């Protein structure tokens, strides 16, 4: 089974990211687009964007209602937005989603 991955949607004004359980679950959802499959495919029912509103890197925060409405139209439910991102977005590398980044904690150890 695959590890969780980011799904990226390049918008006109804002780029969005969602987190999905696996590419296999997304493919299952795309074959049979119903709410039960959506809950199995998507890790979090939240849509994210970075501070610059462009790209998939950087500090992510939850996308504002206005960002979502400007991109997808008014009165879209979270489920409808997630569906559109899954259908029109693309998966990104899964290597950094669930892994903590560590750096050296004692660079001077042994260096005199």
Automatic annotation (TrEMBL):
The record's Pfam families line, in alphabetical order, gives:
SBDS_N
Q: Where is the Ribosome maturation protein SDO1/SBDS N-terminal domain?
A: 5-96
Q: Where is this region: Disordered?
A: 56-75, 91-112
Q: What is this protein called?
A: SDO1-like protein YHR087W
Q: Which organism is it from?
A: Kluyveromyces marxianus
Q: What is the lineage of its organism?
A: Eukaryota, Fungi, Dikarya, Ascomycota, Saccharomycotina
């Amino acid at each position: 089974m695959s590890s969780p991955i980011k799904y990226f949607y390049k918008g006109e004004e804002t780029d969005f990211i969602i987190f999905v359980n696996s590419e296999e679950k997304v493919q299952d959802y795309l074959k049979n687009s119903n709410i039960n499959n959506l809950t199995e495919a998507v890790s979090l029912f939240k849509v994210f964007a970075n501070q610059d509103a462009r790209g998939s890197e950087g500090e992510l925060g939850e996308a504002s209602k206005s960002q979502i409405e400007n991109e997808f139209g008014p009165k879209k439910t979270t489920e409808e937005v997630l569906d559109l991102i899954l259908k029109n977005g693309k998966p990104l590398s899964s290597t950094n989603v669930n892994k903590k980044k560590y750096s050296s904690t004692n660079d001077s150890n042994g260096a005199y």
